[in-house]
Amino acid sequence: MNRTTLFEPTEGVKVSLLPSTFKLGTARGAPTIRRMFSHVVIFWTRPENPKAADELIAGAEKYLRPVPGIAHFHVGRMAKSPRPVVDQTYQVALNIVFQNKKAQDDYQVHPLHTDFVEKVFKPNCARCVVYDFE
């Protein structure tokens, strides 16, 4: 196994980590992973605006994606699922991963984020739920 291979589940199959995303070290021989900071937002759009989901996604792309400090950005519509455990009451979700909590803190006060809240979120969303975790 080389330094970027986390494990080899089957002969010939390797699961690798990108060095820019994870810091590998050793703690008693096991790899250590740098703590990232994830910011997940679930949006319920205003039912009186049938274009609200499209406007929310376009606004997130315009205002949020360019904010510095983002390691991963994904925004999209709720994925339909036959599984009853999957919440299907929302319309749009946003998943942003930052290198650390400071990058997320900087994002929260960045002018592009505040523009998104005022120009896109408030006119198009009835409510949201935020999940932040390290």
Provide an overview of this structure:
With 134 residues, the protein is of the alpha+beta class. The protein has a single domain (37-133), classed as Alpha-Beta Plaits (2-Layer Sandwich), CATH 3.30.70. Helix content is 27%, strand content 35%. It is built from 3 helices and 8 strands. The chain has helices spanning 52-64, 101-109, 111-124; strands at 5-10, 13-16, 26-27, 30-31, 37-45, 70-77, 92-98, 125-133. It has a 4-stranded antiparallel sheet with strand order 6-7-5-8. The longest helix is centred in the C-terminal third of the chain and has 14 residues, at 111-124. The radius of gyration is 18 Å and the shape is flat. The two termini are 27 Å apart. Residues 1-26 have low confidence and may be disordered.
Uncertain runs are 1-26
Q: Per DSSP, what share of the residues sits in E-state strands of 2 or more residues?
A: 35-45%
What integer value in Å does the Rg equal? 18 Å
Ends apart, CA distance between termini: 27 Å
The major β-sheet equals: 4 strands, antiparallel
Assign a percent range to the helix content: 25-40%
Q: Look at the structure and give the mean pLDDT.
A: 84
Number of helices: 3
User: Order of strands across the biggest sheet?
Assistant: 6-7-5-8
The backbone outline, from C-alpha atoms, is flat
Number of separate strands: 8
H and E string: EEEEEHEEHHE
Task: Count the domains.
Answer: 1
Structural class: alpha+beta
CATH topology: Alpha-Beta Plaits
